[in-house]
# Entry
Amino acid sequence: MATARSKKISQNINPEKAIAELTASVNQAATASAPAASAAPAPAASATRTRRAPAATAAAKAKAAPAQRAKPVNPPSEPSKDLLAFPNPNPERDYLIQFQIPEFTCHCPLTGQPDFAHFIIDMIADQHCVELKSLKMYMWSFRNEGAFHEKVTNDILGKIVETTDPRFVRITARWYVRGGIYTNVVAQHRKKGWKPGKMDVLDATASLGSEKGLLAGSGL
# Structure
């Protein structure tokens, strides 16, 4: 019975119709694959993404960099023209106070070029002594100012005298070479009526020595 049914089905198949249906199905398959073919340029887009990857990586690294501390509203130290003092703890005797500022800087008022000096300040206080931090800030305040060697040395001497009214103060400014010439400026102030004792404490400056740097052997 099954054999009779297969013979009947095979007799009903039209070969030309079967070929036509097969051809139509092949064409349909080709048409369906066309969008996939048109999407072929996709690798180029991926290549573009690949080329942009380093920039994206750099941006990511920049975002990952640690934050820097912001500049404080009130810096712990800054240059100042204010020179402060405190009471002399031993005004009953003469004793020598020496300050050395080996990195003093200012500008030449004519050329704008930086000038460097080693300042040595020897003083015998009367009722007041110079406060060290304010002295540092005061010396720093000349960094961006133009001044001749002679003027800046005498200006600093005048400020110390004005602030502390010492019995004696002497400033030795050893200026580093400019134009092949070393300049040393020495300025001093002695309080009216003051005289050193039998043993002049100023003799101690010879034994204190100094960091003379390039000016070693200058004799001052």
